[in-house]
């Protein structure tokens, strides 16, 4: 009984929040409509804040006046049961509060939308002839440029192809770590993990700096120090990371296995304290950077001793956490890895290839290479998600059956997982290539190479007859590939 | 050959699937397990080869403690215990032959098997087992092109590839029609009699249990409530197992 009561209160609150949101939206929209007038008022911007209490007041009064939208959505509407209602028809929408409110919100939204997008029917009907000059030339394509365009089109297609091909193995590897059904079972002991993690950070730092130390005296020689350093630094950093993780984990396992629980515990506390300090340092640096455009050293100079106190809190929190856990306790490593990978994939995917191209153009200079890398990064994120969803959707029966025959884990993956995921993998990959071809035709806009570069060049020079050829070529190629990939996918699935 | 002592399984969320089950399976038996849905039949089978981890008790297979086995020991035990499933659990997109050969994965060179390389004699063995269940001509068809009864026979051929001492058949005919059910069960019976392979089989229908079992046990709410000869199950016992309102229905 009490549980139902609580649920009801919860739903009441949600209903009020929904109504509040709707009724605050209406005055806020009205204020935004008159934004140029509002800006002229002193403290005009604060007017928007008024919509919050107004919204609450309106929401409460609307709930008192009858069944509000929020109440209807949360199922709190007091509606008589069917048999009591008999043949009596439901009230028409213009006589219910829900219907009227919905209509009001729709009208407000449309009017505001019209206002914001500056829809101008006057131009639509009076300036049509301005187009004729351009359209006239678009319909008379200048065919001699086709040679240069085809050359660039080939670049475009290969750009998309390479981006897709390179992204496949990376996405396939990542997708296994982003599959809930595989990862949520994976755990690792706390102690080994903490020590391994700390040693990995140390190893990575050592690896990165070893290169600097080693190459410093070679600066004046004929060697290409930039190249050697550029290759060695990531390699040694990753090597240090892996080696550190391995050694740290092993050290802890030794301690636990030989029964030296006290030593293991002391080590765990020391390691977690150090990690706590590191976490505090990183967090404070981030806050300094993002919120104040400053850095840790500026913090220390300006705010001492407070930054040290923050470090102290990190140490205490880390040590406390380490003290509460035993070294052998399982840590849900799989869950953490799953969520981190998912987060990275989601953010990477939400950034358009265009923006990625802007970033890589600074790194790799103009041309097809940055365009290809931009498409590849976005493809890895998209394919990684699609692949992992396929892995999550496989039947567990065959897995169980192959495991029950005494097959090892690798054999189980090869015989029960891979046959199930190959066809969707191929299908998604072809689809992705399709998208990449379409994207790569315009990635030239930001300097990413391909036919788009030429298209925008013609457009900037006002050579509409050449633009026309480019557009025709792009449409033809995209349509052909679209058709082709659809047929191949049909055959496979 | 198989001894189960005080076996208990409590699933996460508190469902008590098995409660203190004690059972000894003798060499060469066709032991049928009956009981309502949710009485713990499948869990019992899966605890034997640890597809489900028991929460308490022991499973002894030929003297070896399955419940305490290391991953490698468990793999070697699983090799000798084959399993047949309610929904066949074939890899649909692979060929029948590959499905049958996968039953041999515990024996062959693991690295070669990753490249789908099997010795000729293993392929010959697979064909022989397919002939035995009467579908050799389907060897190169995809598994999902076969009918239910044929798929279950592939499942049996896969089980035979392990040269098992014990077959766990988890409701092998629940997804099949009556006529096909008898076909599949006759294959299991033949394997039991001719090869002397012990069979542990979950069945829904009592008349199938009576017809094929040499011994019957019954589970109810995770407890063993009957253990005896098929003929010993009379009207009263039946009601005890299936509940007061149950009527016996038959598969002819």
Describe this structure in words.
The complex is a heterodimer of chains A (493) and B (252). Chain A has 493 residues and is mainly α. Chain A has helices at residues 2-33, 35-40, 47-65, 69-73, 82-85, 97-116, 121-126, 132-138, 146-177, 180-183, 190-215, 225-257, 261-292, 296-303, 306-324, 333-350, 353-364, 368-392, 396-404, 409-440, 451-460, 464-492; strands at residues 188-189, 330-331. Helix content of chain A is 79%, strand content 1%. A two-stranded antiparallel ribbon of chain A has the order 1-2. In chain A, helix 9 runs parallel beside helix 18 (368-392) and helix 11 packs antiparallel against helix 12 (225-257). The mean pLDDT of chain A is 88. Chain B is built from nine helices and ten strands. Chain B has helices spanning 41-48, 71-80, 96-101, 110-114, 120-132, 148-161, 178-194, 206-212, 235-242, and strands at 2-10, 16-25, 30-34, 56-61, 64-65, 81-84, 166-169, 198-202, 215-220, 223-228. Chain B is globular and about 55 Å long.
């Amino acid at each position: 009984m009490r549980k139902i009561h609580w649920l009801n209160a919860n739903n009441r609150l949600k209903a009020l929040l929904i109504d509040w949101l709707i009724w605050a939206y209406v005055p806020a929209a009205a204020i935004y409509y008159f934004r140029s007038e509002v800006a002229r008022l002193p403290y005009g911007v604060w007017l928007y804040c008024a919509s919050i209490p107004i919204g609450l007041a309106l929401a409460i009064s609307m709930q008192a006046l009858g069944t509000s939208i929020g109440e209807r959505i949360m199922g709190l509407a007091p509606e008589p049961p069917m048999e009591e209602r008999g043949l009596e028809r439901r009230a028409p929408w213009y006589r219910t509060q829900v219907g009227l409110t919905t209509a009001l919100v729709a009208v407000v939204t449309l009017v505001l939308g019209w206002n914001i997008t500056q829809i101008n029917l006057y131009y639509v009907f009076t300036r049509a002839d301005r187009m004729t000059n351009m359209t006239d030339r678009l319909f008379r394509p200048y065919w001699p440029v086709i040679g240069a365009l085809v050359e660039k089109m080939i670049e475009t297609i290969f750009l998309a192809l390479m981006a897709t091909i390179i992204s496949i193995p990376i996405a396939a590897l990542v997708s296994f770590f982003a599959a809930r059904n595989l990862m949520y079972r994976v755990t690792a002991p706390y102690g080994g993990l903490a020590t391994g993690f700390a040693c990995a950070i140390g190893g990575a730092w050592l690896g990165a700096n070893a290169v600097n130390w080693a190459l410093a005296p070679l600066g004046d020689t004929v060697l290409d120090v930039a190249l050697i350093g550029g290759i060695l630094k990531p390699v040694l950093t990753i090597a240090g990371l892996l080696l550190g993780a391995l050694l740290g984990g092993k050290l802890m396992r030794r301690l636990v296995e030989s029964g030296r629980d006290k030593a293991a515990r002391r080590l765990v506390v020391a390691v977690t304290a150090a990690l706590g300090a590191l976490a505090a340092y990183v967090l404070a640096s981030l806050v300094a950077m993002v919120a104040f455009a400053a850095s840790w050293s500026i913090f220390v100079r300006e705010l001492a001793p407070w930054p040290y106190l923050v470090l102290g809190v990190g140490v205490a929190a880390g040590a406390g956490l380490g003290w509460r856990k035993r070294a052998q306790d399982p840590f849900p490593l799989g869950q953490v890895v799953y969520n981190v990978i998912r987060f990275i994939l989601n953010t990477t995917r939400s950034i358009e290839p265009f923006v990625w191209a802007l970033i890589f153009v600074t790194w790799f200079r103009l041309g097809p290479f940055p365009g290809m890398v931009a498409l590849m990064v976005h493809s890895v994120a998209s394919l990684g998600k699609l692949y992992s969803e396929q892995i999550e959707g496989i039947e567990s029966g065959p897995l169980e059956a192959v495991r029950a025959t005494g097959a090892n884990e690798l054999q189980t993956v090869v015989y029960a997982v891979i046959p199930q995921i190959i066809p969707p993998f191929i299908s998604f990959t072809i689809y992705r290539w399709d998208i990449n071809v379409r994207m790569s035709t315009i990635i030239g806009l930001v300097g990413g190479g391909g036919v788009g570069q030429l298209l925008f060049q013609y457009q900037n020079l006002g050579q509409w007859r050449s633009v026309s050829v480019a557009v025709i070529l792009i449409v033809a190629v995209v349509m052909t590939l679209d058709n082709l990939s659809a047929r191949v996918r049909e055959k496979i699935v | 050959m198989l001894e189960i002592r005080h076996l208990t399984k409590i699933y996460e969320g508190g469902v008590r699937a098995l409660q203190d089950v004690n059972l000894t399976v003798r060499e060469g038996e066709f032991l049928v397990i009956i009981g309502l849905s949710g009485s713990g039949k499948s869990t019992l089978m899966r605890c034997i080869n640890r597809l489900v981890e028991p929460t308490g008790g022991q499973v002894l297979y030929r003297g070896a403690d399955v419940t305490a086995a290391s991953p490698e020991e468990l793999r070697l035990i699983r090799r000798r215990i084959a399993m047949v499933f309610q929904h066949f659990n074939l890899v649909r997109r692979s060929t029948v032959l590959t499905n049958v050969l996968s039953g041999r994965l515990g024996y062959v060179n693991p690295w070669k098997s990753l490249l789908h390389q099997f010795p000729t004699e293993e392929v010959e063995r697979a064909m022989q087992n397919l002939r035995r269940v009467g579908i050799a001509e389907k060897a190169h068809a995809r598994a999902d092109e076969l009918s239910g009864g044929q798929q279950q026979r592939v499942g049996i051929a896969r089980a035979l590839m392990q040269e098992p001492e014990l077959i766990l058949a988890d409701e092998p005919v629940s997804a099949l029609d009556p006529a096909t059910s008898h076909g599949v069960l006759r294959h299991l019976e033949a394997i039991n009699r001719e090869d002397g392979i012990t069979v542990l089989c979950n069945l829904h229908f009592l008349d199938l249990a009576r017809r094929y079992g040499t011994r019957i046990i019954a589970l109810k709410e995770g407890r063993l409530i009957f253990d005896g000869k098929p003929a010993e199950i009379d009207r009263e016992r039946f009601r005890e197992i299936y509940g007061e309102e149950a009527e016996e229905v038959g598969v002819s």
